[in-house]
Each structure stands twice: as C-alpha cells, then as structure tokens.
Specification:
By secondary structure, this protein is of the alpha+beta class. It contains two helices and four strands, in the order E-E-E-H-E-H. Strand 2 and strand 3 form a beta hairpin. The longest helix is centred in the middle third of the chain and has 15 residues. The protein is globular, with a radius of gyration of 15 Å. The relative contact order is 0.18.
C-alpha cells in the first residue's frame, strides 16, 4: 500500500506499508516501511491520519498488529509512533556488518 495525503492539489505526506504473514513465524501483521510529512504540516495531524488509514486497511485484511522499524536515534519518528500507541515489539532486530 502506498497512501498519499493531498489538499488543494498539493501533496501533504505519504505512508508505505504491507501485510506480511511469514515474518519470523509470527501471525500476519501490517508493516509500515516509510512515512513522510513536510516540516510545515507536521503539527496538523497528517501523519496521524495516514497511519490511521493504513491501519484500517490492514485491519480489513484481518491483521491485528502493526509494526515498524526505526533507528534508535531518530527521536522525531520515535516520538510520533509512541504518541500513536506503538511500543517495543517482542522481537529484537539483529545485524552484522559484512561490508
């Protein structure tokens, strides 16, 4: 899913996500891969409405959980998702630098 918020012919933001049902043996869940809103409209609730819209689309697909991954030091995005009721998931991402 790729949703776009627009008003007066201009784009106010976007959100990208999909439902996956094979991730680490978990039941189907919605994943938000990206969300973007220009700084000048960040206090207008655009991102909240986009997240609500994609969440509702996931719910219609039978999903009961929404997940995302963010960088630990991205305080702006972390604050947004926490304000929307999201919290740490029961899985821990691991990585290894191979480059």
């Amino acid at each position: 899913r790729f949703l776009v918020a627009e008003a007066s012919g201009g784009i106010l933001g976007f959100i990208v996500g999909e439902v996956r049902d094979w991730e680490f043996g978990s039941p189907p869940c919605g994943w938000v891969f990206g969300i973007g809103v220009p700084a000048e409209v960040r206090e207008a609730g655009v991102a909240t409405r986009l997240l609500e819209a994609i969440t509702e689309a996931f719910r219609r697909q039978g999903v009961a959980t929404v997940r995302t991954l963010i960088a630990r030091d991205n305080r702006l995005v972390l604050s947004f998702f926490r304000s929307q009721g999201m919290m740490a998931a029961p899985v821990i991402p691991l990585e290894k630098d191979i480059g």
